[in-house]
Request: fold
Amino acid sequence: MKSKLSNSGIDVTVKDVEKYMNRYNEVMMGKNGEKAKELCLSLLPINIIVVFTFFVFIL
Reply:
């Protein structure tokens, strides 16, 4: 694989491919989805406050 990458003329390293595969596998296993859910739940109170404030000033 290393020789094919170096002979291809493309500016891609083995580490780039490994990073891509790791990210791909994490997404497929749902790790990033779980992280996103946790982030959304942690930001939910802030979103509610922003929406409430928006409607108070508009109305």
About this structure: DSSP finds three helices and no strands in the chain. The two ends are 63 Å apart (CA to CA). Residues 2-58 form one domain. Residues 33 and 48 are 22 Å apart (CA to CA).
